[in-house]
Design goal:
Organism: Streptosporangium longisporum
Order of helices and strands: HEEEHH
CATH topology: Ybab, Chain: A
Structural class: mainly alpha
Distance between the termini: 24 Å
Helix content: 55-70%
CATH superfamily: Nucleoid-associated protein YbaB-like domain
Number of helices: 3
Pfam family, one: YbaB_DNA_bd
Strand order of the largest sheet: 1-2-3
InterPro entries: YbaB-like_sf (IPR036894), YbaB/EbfC (IPR004401)
CATH architecture: 2-Layer Sandwich
Radius of gyration: 24 Å
CATH class: Alpha Beta
Protein name: YbaB/EbfC family DNA-binding protein
Number of domains: 1
């Protein structure tokens, strides 16, 4: 793990150090993904490009562009074209979201699997609770693991 100023610190336990280094790498990857997710948008078109929309992940409509020639379609056809464009854009946004999150979700699953049965019992037995910083770090790792598993 790293300190707030970016320096690495070691616990003295090689197994815990290895796990925390893996967590640090995932944290950096996660930060990059958050930025990419904040910028994620998708476009969809219908009626031969006369109707286009932009959506955010989850399908929130961010913009609609209707070419004046689309008004000749009539209200029902125009409505259908808008819905078709929104559906196309939502599918694209969902696919992009899945692609962005795949490394993190796979990494968290891998990290979680590596933790299975390896973290010491913080309530006793391993004697690590005598080191409050290590105990707190391990508690934090367990909490994060629980959050990502649900």
């Amino acid at each position: 793990m790293t300190t707030p100023d970016g320096r690495s610190w070691r616990t003295g336990n090689p197994e815990v150090d290895r796990l925390t280094e893996g967590f640090d790498a995932l944290s950096l990857q996660y930060e990059g993904m958050l930025k990419e997710l904040g910028d994620l948008r998708a476009r969809g078109e219908a009626a031969d490009g006369l109707v286009s929309v932009e959506v955010a992940p989850g399908g929130a409509l961010l913009g609609v562009d209707i070419n004046p020639r689309a008004m000749r379609l009539g209200s029902e056809a125009l409505s259908e074209a808008i819905m078709e464009a929104v559906t196309e854009a939502s599918k694209a946004a969902t696919a992009r979201l899945d692609a962005v999150l795949a490394p993190l979700l796979g990494g968290m699953e891998s990290f979680s699997e590596s933790l299975q049965g390896r973290l010491p019992d913080l309530d006793g037995g391993a004697g690590l609770s005598a080191d409050p910083e290590l105990a707190e770090a391990l508690r934090s790792l367990q909490e994060m693991r629980a959050r990502y598993e649900s």
